Amino acid sequence: MDRYYPLLPIGIGLCSLVWLVRDIVAAWLLGRRGERAEGTIVGYAETNSTSRMIVRFRTEEGEEVLALHDNSSWSAARYGDPVTVSYDPDNPQRARVVAAPWLSLWPRTLFLTVASGILLIGCFLGFLTWG
Amino acid sequence: MQLRKFANPWCLLCGAVAGGLAWAVTLPVWAAFVIAVIIWLTAVLVFGFLFPTAPSETELPADPVAVDAGCARRAHAAAVSLQDVAAPFLEGPLGDRVSRIVWRAGEIAASIDHLVRRSQELSALVHNLAQHPHSRGRARYVESRHAEIRRRMYAATRDLEAAVPRFLATASPGAAPDVAALDRLATDLENIGYGVDIGESMVTEILGPEPPRTPQAPAN
Predict the structure, then answer these.
(1) Which of A101, B52, B85, B172 ranks highest by number of CB atoms within 10 Å?
(2) Chain A residue numbers touching B39 (CB-CB < 8 A)
(3) Is A7 close to B13, i.e. CB distance below 8 A?
């Protein structure tokens, strides 16, 4: 198994990048196909490991929806903050906050940098081991 | 060992990347898994069976004992050749440089010869260690060091053989010698000797210093 140890950093980097790409693609698809609505932050759904924002908004049909949004920002939103969400008209629970004062590109950039670094280190080790 | 081709890490990676990308573009997990398997098997088929890459020079040969013996012969022949082509220059103005080159080449050949002899002891040690479950870790370590020593031997032999035409190119009888090129060759030979010396220290670290040879009894 000594031969396969570079797969560990490669796997970690790859999984992180794939997760990031999936997140971006999902946001892009929702933004393209989804409807937009104004909403407000009404609290947090907390578990032992995660904390997701609960956003309340009203669909075009007038249905009031409470949806969860991953908190991927440096600063957290406060109760009552106004936000813009994009939601799937067929399943309004699938909603993401697309515009808010606290949304930032930095977390994704940092994640991308760290994941790419780990992946590159793994590839270099792989090159040395398997090259 | 066809099964080893399926365990090629690069092919596994191809499959993993394809499957990951498929999942990332929101395909279901089962579909991403199927794509990963298809890409992995395709990579094995293409790079393992249809267009297999030639083994690299750093890869160890199938019969290392025979290659080791040939290595010592080639190194010795290269050192002798270098001595022959350098002989006309030993008395000239470049005599010091040339004699140093010749001496270093002989030292490298002697070191390679010594490493080849001790390489057989290392093989025996690996074999013995691998017999006992509690010493398999040590066996793997010795095996990896042995592989490194062999790589150094083969690389040094190749470089020593290449030194002969290099010397002829820099100093041929009747032409003005290229002193700078000669100095570069001398430096390279020092580096080659240094690499072989590291191999010797690896052997000594594992096997300990070589016991002195028992002198042969004089013939009556």
Answers:
(1) B85
(2) none
(3) yes
Q: What number is the ipTM of this complex?
A: 0.70
Best mutation target among A22, A30, A91 (most B Cβ atoms within 10 Å) is A22
Same domain, B32 and B104: no
Taking contacts as CB-CB distances below 8 angstroms, the residues of chain A near B13 are 7, 10, 14, 126
Q: Which residues pair with B165 in a beta bridge?
A: none
Q: Is residue B216 part of a domain?
A: no
Residues B33 and B129 in one domain: no
What does the alpha-carbon distance between residue B132 and residue B127 come to, in Å, rounded to a whole number? 10
Domain count within chain B: 2
DSSP character at residue A90: T
How much is the pLDDT for B9? Answer: 86
B26 touches chain A (CB under 8 A): yes
Could you please report the per-residue DSSP string of B21-83? HHHHTT--HHHHHHHHHHHHHHHIIIIIIISPPPPPTTSPPS-HHHHHHHHHHHHHHHHHHHH
Going from the C-alpha of B141 to that of each of A3, B135, B138, B203, the distances in angstroms are 13, 10, 5, 12
Domains of chain A: 7-130 (2.40.50.140)
CB pairs under 8 A between A and B: 40
Whether residue B56 lies inside any domain: the answer is no
Domain of residue B14: give its range: 3-50
Q: Does residue B45 sit in the same domain as residue B117?
A: no
Determine the average pLDDT of the residues in A87-93. 87
Identify whether B57 is part of a domain: no
Same domain, B189 and B111: yes
Say if residue B86 is in the same domain as residue B45: no
Q: Do A22 and B23 touch (CB under 8 A)?
A: yes
- Decide if B58 is inside a domain: no
* pLDDT, tens only, B182-199: 888 889 989 988 988 998
| Cβ <8 Å between B23 and A18 | yes
* Residue B98 pLDDT: 86
Q: CB B21 to CB A15 under 8 A? A: no
